[in-house]
Amino acid sequence: xxxxxxxxxxxxxxxxxxxxxxxxxxxxxxxxxxxxxxxxxxxxxxxxxxxxxxxxxxxxxxxxxxxxxxxxxxxxxxxxxxxxxxxxxxxxxxxxxxxxxxxxxxxxxxxxxxxxxxxxxxxxxxxxxxxxxxxxxxxxxxxxxxxxxxxxxxxxxxxxxxxxxxxxxxxxxxxxxxxxxxxxxxxxxxxxxxxxxxxxxxxxxxxxxxxxxxxxxxxxxxxxxxxxxxxxxxxxxxxxxxxxxxxxxxxxxxxxxxxxxxxxxxxxxxxxxxxxxxxxxxxxxxxxxxxxxxxxxxxxxxxxxxx
Length: 307
Prior knowledge:
Blueprint: E1 5-6, E2 9-10, E3 12-20, E4 25-34, E5 41-50, H1 52-65, E6 73-77, H2 80-95, H3 109-121, E7 124-128, H4 136-151, E8 168-177, E9 180-189, E10 192-201, H5 207-221, E11 227-232, H6 235-250, H7 264-274, E12 279-281, H8 287-306
Parallel strand pairs: 3-6, 6-7, 8-11, 11-12
Antiparallel strand pairs: 1-2, 3-4, 4-5, 8-9, 9-10
Helix pairs in contact: 1-3, 5-7
């Protein structure tokens, strides 16, 4: 435990985690509070219908509620949504009356408002650490959250990468027909969103090729560094980028049968674009992405017609 001193008072260490499986679905949160000279304090809880992000926020709220006002604490979380939200984005949300830059309402504003109030009452230092990296107390917080998820009827919060804890998210859809293609994407970072679109034309334009090229272009547009989750309904893109590409690269862009990889130039471009970032995940989209995809499908068709 840290022995750092803040104003003559030893700083408390707090570890939080939360998740839902599926997302949205049954969720749980877990907290470990470490006070100097005392046994670890463990807190946990769950909800039958919730989201990963709401459970991350709830964990932080319950942790700070357990502290004495003014008590200095360092809160460790593996959620970039939580850490960046409370340290970077929240001032803008408050200034805009809890609106995003684009004018829409901030998601989970009820929990953000409560957390902002508690953050004001405490001397909190917010720290991010990588999840599932073997840190004793982060792993314990995850165990507590996972147990609550199972108690609510869900799976383990660590079963798969949901994409929820990445700094940026990309939702991508394409439309291709007879050598003309269009794509549309939603870029999300915290409470801010931006929609982009593009098109391609030529005999070599196929749905598979366009999926890969569009993903590469979007990753190239993002600032270097940070983590990204790319949501796509294309198994070709998702499985290729998360699984097959490693073998292709080792075999000098050949399949297991020794044949050249289709769309090699597009895959190489995507590979280079992904390496610019701290990590790119390609999770399986669920119900939460359905409405976003519906709007993007319309814009992708429009972009195809504009080609």
